[in-house]
């Protein structure tokens, strides 16, 4: 097996997506070897910088408050429709950009519970992202509900059999992540959703580690609700607004708990009582964050141009490269590959475990390899197909090998 730098550079020479690296703001840090944390914060687009300048100078600076009626008010739906089409398999009118992931999750879980009155149980898993677990626990405490926790195999993630064993007649909603934030294990969305529906429960999917990195087919899978962030693989920027999806079959009964004025039927009526807007717009609460939404719009536009299929193919190839190099260079140094080896079952990152991972992570960052430490012993190698090169991965793994092999 060839694992030379020349081999990695040849992979870059044949990479159809390599041209998109020039569409991002250049990194000027001379000490940076590799940025492998785009699954926590994606890099900024040049188009976003230009669009923000136009926003400040023209839309905000010159048109002032008139810009609300000249396009700003419809951005949450317009960008949501495009995000649904390009990235998550949702027909128009079902996706809207709003709030943070935590707030969107709270809204959708509460809405699902309201659609299943009399049921007193929420199912989630012990490996779910902290936000998801904390939101579920908070809602359960608030409404005296029971939380049933699946304890999945860390390497495979939550499987359909796990859900089948956990969901019962009293389950109102199942809350799971499509891609495990530690192992990158991909859950079988369609099968799990069918199982939950078979027991009369609804499902809320967290797409934070899949939206923009792999095809998602929400409509085809019959998903009820989904949420996700935009600052990872969609490169929308730090704190950029999240999105939520509500299947059209639930629109008439969908009631979200934070009923702000912007989600009303007529926002300028200043009515005495809240009357929800028709369709997905009722999911809104407060004033849309226009500056943040610009980044979402540009990130989705670039993804549409690149194609989610090609992005997924490269993510799988980058993951294979990490695993191959880890097997050759890092396993002899005490590392373990803690992500699925099957391309189909692995998202766009690879988890490497090591007993001294926390200390090694800081040394790697100090040596120009930006990765994530994940408690208790994980080094997460993020692979953003539009910005990560094969040579970058090769250099990063080489540095990891050198740092781990030199001791304290």
From TrEMBL:
One Gene Ontology term, aspect cellular component: cytoplasm
Listed GO MF terms: kynureninase activity; pyridoxal phosphate binding
EC number: 3.7.1.3
Cofactors: pyridoxal 5'-phosphate
InterPro entries, per the entry: Kynureninase, PyrdxlP-dep_Trfase, PyrdxlP-dep_Trfase_major, PyrdxlP-dep_Trfase_small
Pathway(s) per entry: Cofactor biosynthesis; NAD(+) biosynthesis; quinolinate from L-kynurenine: step 2/3; Amino-acid degradation; L-kynurenine degradation; L-alanine and anthranilate from L-kynurenine: step 1/1
Gene3D superfamilies given in the database record: Aspartate Aminotransferase, domain 1, Type I PLP-dependent aspartate aminotransferase-like (Major domain)
EC category: hydrolase
GO BP annotations listed: anthranilate metabolic process; L-kynurenine catabolic process; L-tryptophan catabolic process to kynurenine; NAD+ biosynthetic process
Keywords per UniProt: Hydrolase, Pyridine nucleotide biosynthesis, Pyridoxal phosphate
Catalytic activity: L-kynurenine + H2O = anthranilate + L-alanine + H(+); 3-hydroxy-L-kynurenine + H2O = 3-hydroxyanthranilate + L-alanine + H(+)
Coiled-coil annotated spans: none
Superkingdom of source: Bacteria
Function: Catalyzes the cleavage of L-kynurenine (L-Kyn) and L-3-hydroxykynurenine (L-3OHKyn) into anthranilic acid (AA) and 3-hydroxyanthranilic acid (3-OHAA), respectively.
Family membership noted in the UniProt record: Belongs to the kynureninase family.
PANTHER family per record: KYNURENINASE
Assembly notes: Homodimer.
Name the record gives this protein: Kynureninase
Organism whose genome encodes this protein: Kibdelosporangium aridum
Source species taxonomy: Bacteria, Bacillati, Actinomycetota, Actinomycetes, Pseudonocardiales
């Amino acid at each position: 097996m060839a694992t030379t730098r020349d081999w990695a550079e040849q992979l870059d020479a044949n990479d159809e997506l390599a041209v998109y690296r020039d569409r991002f703001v250049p990194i000027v840090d001379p000490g940076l070897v590799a940025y492998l944390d785009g699954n926590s914060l994606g890099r900024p687009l040049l188009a976003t910088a230009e669009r923000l300048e136009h926003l400040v100078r023209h839309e905000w600076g010159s048109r002032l408050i008139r810009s609300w009626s000249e396009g700003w008010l419809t951005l949450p739906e317009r960008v949501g429709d495009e995000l649904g089409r390009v990235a998550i398999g949702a027909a128009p009118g079902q996706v809207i950009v709003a709030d943070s992931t935590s707030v969107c999750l709270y809204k959708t879980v509460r809405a699902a519970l309201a659609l299943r009155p009399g049921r007193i149980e929420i199912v989630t898993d012990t490996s779910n992202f902290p936000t998801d677990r904390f939101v579920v626990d908070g809602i359960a405490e608030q409404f005296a509900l029971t939380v049933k926790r699946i304890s999945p195999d860390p390497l495979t993630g939550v499987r359909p059999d796990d859900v089948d064993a956990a969901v019962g007649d009293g389950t109102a909603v199942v809350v799971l992540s499509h891609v495990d934030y530690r192992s990158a294990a991909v859950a079988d969305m369609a099968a799990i959703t069918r199982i939950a529906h078979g027991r009369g429960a609804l499902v809320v999917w967290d797409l934070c580690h899949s939206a923009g990195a792999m095809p998602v087919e929400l409509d085809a899978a019959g998903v009820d609700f989904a949420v996700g962030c935009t600052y990872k693989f969609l490169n929308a920027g730090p704190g950029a607004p999240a999105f939520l999806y509500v299947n059209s079959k639930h629109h008439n009964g969908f009631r979200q708990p934070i009923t702000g004025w912007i989600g009303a039927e007529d926002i300028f009526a200043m009515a005495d009582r809240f009357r929800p807007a028709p369709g997905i717009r009722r999911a809104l609460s407060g004033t849309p964050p226009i500056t943040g939404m610009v980044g979402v719009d540009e990130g989705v536009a670039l993804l549409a141009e690149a194609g989610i299929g090609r992005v997924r193919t490269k993510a799988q190839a980058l993951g294979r490269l990490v695993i191959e190099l880890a097997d050759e260079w890092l396993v002899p140094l005490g590392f373990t590959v803690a992500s699925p080896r099957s391309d189909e079952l692995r998202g766009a990152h690879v988890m490497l475990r090591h007993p001294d991972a926390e200390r090694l992570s800081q040394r790697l960052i100090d040596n120009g390899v930006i990765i994530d430490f994940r408690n208790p012993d994980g080094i997460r190698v993020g692979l953003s197909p539009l910005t990560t090169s094969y040579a970058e991965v090769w250099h990063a793994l080489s540095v990891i090998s050198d740092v781990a092999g030199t001791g304290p």
